[in-house]
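Exercise 7. Given the components listed, write out the predicted structure of the assembled complex. Treat all entries as one system.
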Amino acid sequence: KQEVTQIPAALSVPEGENLVLNCSFTDSAIYNLQWFRQDPGKGLTSLLLIQSSQREQTSGRLNASLDKSSGRSTLYIAASQPGDSATYLCAVRTGANSKLTFGKGITLSVRP
Amino acid sequence: ETGVTQSPTHLIKTRGQQVTLRCSSQSGHNTVSWYQQALGQGPQFIFQYYREEENGRGNFPPRFSGLQFPNYSSELNVNALELDDSALYLCASSLLRLGLGVSEQFFGPGTRLTVL
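Answer.
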């Protein structure tokens, strides 16, 4: 059974800091991995999708990496801004037609 | 191209009642998945529909049921509501092409269900 862990549960940083959010998963046989952002009480916004054959994906100030052998992914946020404050969720899919298994998320607060 | 939409936004029910939540998938998508997200938790998979048939189900009792229509929109029905059913219900759509894989999954804004 796939399990996804995100530690710590919450993080507070000053504006401008570069930061890394970690995600680990127990079954390395994944199809792809997706990072999402969730604002309080809202739905999920897809940030980055990494296929199992890829090592990383970049979008603007965001960079996500994937190391299947160690069961880890990281989301790197450069030059953080108060607008980045949200909960960041990692989710893995183990097959082309399978569900997404989510972590509990990391709640990020960027202080002005 | 329109994104995933859900209705209603909020809903308050009492224990024992029944509820129907609705979702319109993103244009061009043929697969809809439903997730339940309790406060402070990650979303939990309820079930998925592909071409109007359920093709995957999570660890939820039979009182959670669904439908997918020919236009790929979907409904989630919950019977005999319990207090623990209070959660944010998320719908997500994607394009599944057999033998070619599945596209990125896009989520709707969710329906907040409160059971009193």
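Discussion: Chain B has a mean pLDDT of 93. The longest strand of chain B covers residues 87-94.
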